[in-house]
Amino acid sequence: MAEWIDACSTDEIDEEDVMRWDHGGRTYAIYHAPGGAFYCTDGLCTHENVHLAGGLVMDHVIECPKHNGRFDYRTGEPLRAPVCVALRTYPAKVEGGRVLVQLG
Questions:
Q1: Most buried of 3, 40, 83, 93, CB within 10 angstroms?
Q2: Are strands 89-90 and 78-80 parallel, antiparallel or unpaired?
């Protein structure tokens, strides 16, 4: 079973925003959803490997800053071209004011 890794404080990400998180030689994106939930996906767009942390977050959608492709960050589902390959998602939870992510 994969372990839970401490990624950041809940205070580090405003609601409806995204933060880049690098761990183990990989880049991830952590999202603070409306209502307080947190989510984690791969940090690079599946279209051209652009960092999603530079993109715009609206509701449960991340828009890539390069070509404006969109994903539902809760599921990784592509929502608008040019993206057509889903993002990988990872379980995230909050404990003691910290965002924990399960990788593996």
A1: 40
A2: unpaired
C-alpha span between 79 and 91 (Å, rounded): 21
Please write the tens of the pLDDT for every residue from 46-80.
999 999 999 999 999 999 999 999 999 999 999 99
Closest alpha carbon to 56 in 15, 16, 7: 16
The alpha-carbon radius of gyration of the chain (Å, integer) is 13
Query: Are 30 and 38 a contacting pair, CB within 8 Å?
Result: yes
Which run of H or E residues covers position 57?
Answer: strand 56-58
**Using CA atoms, how far apart are residues 80 and 58, in angstroms rounded to an integer?**
14
